[in-house]
């Protein structure tokens, strides 16, 4: 009897650990990247949570869709399914919901439309990586809202140009820094899913 109770307790603990996040299909998930010397996250990686919903080409256990590094040898990226992972910090970030920026209001699309966008991107590819126009946050906002935007809100990277009063789009420093940091973050991301390359993580 006692061992039965123990098993029940262990099972329940397992359930609690596995379900400690309660992300829903279509949620935007941010992965803040920190560095000891800077208070704010340096940079944020983004993914869309898809849970166990089946998609063509999605493997069992995969639960996110993101723009990430798919070849370490050539800095080649792609929009693929991946695993949330237990070791890295992540958090819900649907902060654009119902926000109006400029002339656009960001409304969460229906599950059907989000599913169709993921299928289309999987079929057509998501184009070459560009820190200013086609990064991992652009993919996530496109899938959830149908409109690409990258704010890198509340990160160190977003502040680089504000000090110099240069429009962010024209700021070479921002572009260079974001690309360097993202390249590093993408290599790290690759390593969560493939421990054999852990030595490459910066
Ligand atoms: C956004 O607007 C929709 C429709 O009015 C509403 O159902 C939803 O709760 C709003 N979300 C937030 C985060 O305010
Ligand atoms: C997906 O692609 C099809 C045709 O290729 C297109 O008609 C449709 O509008 C796309 N769906 C979305 C949500 O963009």
Automatic annotation (TrEMBL):
List the GO biological process terms. N-acylphosphatidylethanolamine metabolic process
User: Which residues does UniProt assign to the signal peptide?
Assistant: 1-20
PROSITE patterns from the UniProt entry: LRAT
**Coiled-coil region list:** none
Alphabetical UniProt keywords: Acyltransferase, Hydrolase, Lipid metabolism, Signal, Transferase
Q: Name one GO molecular function term.
A: phospholipase A1 activity
Gene Ontology, cellular component aspect: cytoplasm
Every copy of the LRAT domain together lies at 35-152
Gene3D superfamilies, A to Z: endopeptidase domain like (from Nostoc punctiforme)
The record's listing under InterPro entries reads: H-rev107_PLA/AT, LRAT_dom
Looking up Pfam families in the UniProt record yields: LRAT
* Key word Coiled coil present: no
* Keyword NAD appears in the UniProt entry: no
- Give the family this protein belongs to, as stated in its UniProt record: Belongs to the H-rev107 family.
> Which named protein is this?
Phospholipase A and acyltransferase 1-like
